[in-house]
Design goal:
46% helix; 8 helices; Rossmann fold
């Protein structure tokens, strides 16, 4: 992947992995537009990475996704890269959820942000991307797509589905010139799932440096550390990983 002279829309770019990737894309010479639900965090990101553009948008809402694509294409007609990075992680026991719509809404949000949004945004942007030079779609899945963490059942399931979708999308677009790439993070020291849950995990800058270098080298699916081993593991190895991780 050519890292320079792109125009990139990156969802969930205000913090964590998204911000780390946005910083490196800008440093490489690309124009980057991030979106997120919190305007204050988006402004902080812009202050940290001069040159970033942003839109406040809730990608869990279909109408917001449609409006986002309309605005970005109008304001940045050279848009040629979509990075589906936005994601949330909830940890819970399904049997303990209250049997009411309010409780389910929190779980539905996880499905909408992690899976529905990447599929919908990709579909909305494909007609535009077909007309661009060196178009790319990048989906950010997870090592948990391959060996799930039972404590985060919906997160793990949505990432497994996103990995599956990525494979299908790559095959469908093989003759269009649109490249479809996948980033497979391990646990990274961000606030995903809650503040302080991942302080033991891979440093975000070390992770992002490695991922961006490998994308620049032309790889289609890239992991880091434990997720690099997991994405290439055999079924027996994945079963062993699942048992180890889930006690």
């Amino acid at each position: 992947m050519n890292l320079a002279t792109n125009t990139i829309l990156l969802t969930g770019g205000a913090t964590g992995i998204g911000l780390a990737l946005a910083r490196r894309f800008v440093q490489a010479g690309s124009q980057v537009i991030i979106c997120g639900r919190r305007p204050d965090k988006l402004r902080e990101a812009q202050q940290q990475v001069p040159g970033l553009h942003f839109y406040a948008c809730d990608v869990a809402v279909a109408a917001d996704r449609v409006q986002l694509v309309q605005r970005v294409v109008a304001d940045f007609p050279g848009l040629n890269v979509l990075v589906n990075n936005a994601g949330i992680q909830n940890r819970f026991q399904l049997a303990e959820l209250p049997a009411d719509l309010a409780a389910w809404e929190a779980q539905r949000q996880e499905i909408a942000i992690n899976l529905e949004a990447p599929i919908h945004l990709t579909a909305l942007l494909l007609p535009h991307l077909r007309q661009q030079r060196e178009p790319v779609v990048i989906n950010v899945s997870s090592g948990l797509a391959f060996a799930p963490m039972a404590a985060a059942p919906i997160y793990s399931a949505t990432k497994a589905a996103l990995h599956s979708f990525t494979l299908s999308l790559r095959r469908q677009l093989a003759d269009t010139g649109i490249r479809v790439l996948e980033i497979v993070p391990p646990a990274v020291n961000t606030d995903l799932g809650g503040v302080g849950l991942h302080t033991w995990a891979a440093p975000v800058d070390e992770f992002a440096d490695s991922i961006v270098a490998r994308l620049a080298a032309g790889e289609e699916e890239v992991g880091f550390g434990t997720s690099e081993a997991i994405r290439q593991a055999s079924r027996a190895e994945l079963d062993a990983r699942f048992k180890q991780m889930n006690g």
